[in-house]
């Protein structure tokens, strides 16, 4: 697989990822014409598709309408039917069944509103030129086909580019409004209203928590009350003892 082709596919995938929300694991919707061309070019879709899109967990789908169309076409497309039967069957609401092109176009349109309806974002793989052109005009859908015996992811169509640009403008509008408001405040000198600071709860005063010291009272001569009496009493006892001797 050529490096140039892989790089080109990587750029397209990045575009659809950031502009339209297509993220791995990818879901590829195939029709009978794509399966028939893969058989003709001897392309193993289960092997080559994950390598090309660099997604080992991708899933490929067909619809009941696609399988029914291949069955009705009979023996010439029996090989394509066998390939299509290997893949999962995507739910489609068509009763009675429609043509494969109408069915795939319907599912592709619904997938554009997948954010609201929680539907699958589909890639569409087909060789039907009319269907490809219809989806290019619809825009916002990754399109795949087989060209020069290899799988090819188309570059975004003009309508897809317009949708992406409109989406970007819509997302940026709130930012522009905020910028205008800020400029007006600066020009008119309108500042933000001062915010009152909330008073934080303060702890107790550490000085008030200290134990009070007991202050000893002193006499006018500086002596401690009671100390003189003790000394006097002790002196009298000594004099009495001497007299007794």
TrEMBL record:
<feature type="domain" description="UTP23 sensor motif region">
    <location>
        <begin position="197"/>
        <end position="214"/>
    </location>
</feature>
<keyword id="KW-0690">Ribosome biogenesis</keyword>
<dbReference type="GO" id="GO:0032040">
    <property type="term" value="C:small-subunit processome"/>
</dbReference>
<dbReference type="InterPro" id="IPR029060">
    <property type="entry name" value="PIN-like_dom_sf"/>
</dbReference>
<dbReference type="InterPro" id="IPR006984">
    <property type="entry name" value="Fcf1/UTP23"/>
</dbReference>
<keyword id="KW-0698">rRNA processing</keyword>
<dbReference type="Pfam" id="PF24779">
    <property type="entry name" value="UTP23_sensor"/>
</dbReference>
<dbReference type="InterPro" id="IPR057776">
    <property type="entry name" value="UTP23_sensor"/>
</dbReference>
<feature type="region of interest" description="Disordered">
    <location>
        <begin position="184"/>
        <end position="245"/>
    </location>
</feature>
<dbReference type="GO" id="GO:0006364">
    <property type="term" value="P:rRNA processing"/>
</dbReference>
<keyword id="KW-0539">Nucleus</keyword>
<comment type="similarity">
    <text>Belongs to the UTP23/FCF1 family. UTP23 subfamily.</text>
</comment>
<protein>
    <recommendedName>
        <fullName>rRNA-processing protein UTP23 homolog</fullName>
    </recommendedName>
</protein>
<dbReference type="Pfam" id="PF04900">
    <property type="entry name" value="Fcf1"/>
</dbReference>
<comment type="function">
    <text>Involved in rRNA-processing and ribosome biogenesis.</text>
</comment>
<feature type="compositionally biased region" description="Basic and acidic residues">
    <location>
        <begin position="184"/>
        <end position="195"/>
    </location>
</feature>
């Amino acid at each position: 697989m050529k490096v140039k082709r892989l790089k080109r596919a990587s750029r397209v995938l990045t575009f659809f990822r950031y502009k339209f929300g297509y993220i791995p694991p990818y879901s590829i919707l195939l029709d009978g014409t794509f399966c028939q061309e893969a058989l003709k070019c001897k392309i193993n879709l289960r092997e080559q598709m994950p390598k090309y899109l660099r997604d080992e967990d991708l899933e490929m789908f067909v619809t009941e309408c696609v399988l029914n169309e291949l069955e009705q076409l009979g023996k010439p497309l029996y090989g394509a039917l066998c390939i299509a039967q290997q893949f999962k069957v995507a739910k489609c609401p068509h009763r009675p069944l429609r043509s494969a092109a109408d069915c795939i176009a319907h599912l592709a349109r619904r997938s554009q509103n997948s954010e609201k309806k929680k539907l699958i974002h589909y890639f569409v793989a087909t060789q039907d030129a009319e269907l490809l052109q219809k989806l290019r005009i619809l825009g916002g859908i990754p399109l795949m086909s087989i060209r020069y015996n290899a799988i090819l992811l188309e570059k975004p169509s003009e309508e897809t580019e317009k949708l992406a640009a409109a989406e970007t403008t819509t997302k940026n509008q709130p930012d522009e409004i905020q910028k205008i408001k800020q400029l007006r405040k600066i020009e008119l000198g309108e500042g933000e209203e001062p915010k009152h600071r909330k008073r934080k709860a303060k702890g107790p005063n550490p000085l008030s928590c200290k134990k009070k010291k007991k202050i000893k009272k002193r006499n006018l001569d500086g002596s401690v009350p009671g100390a003189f009496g003790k000394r006097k009493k002790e002196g009298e006892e000594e004099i009495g003892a001497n007299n007794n001797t």
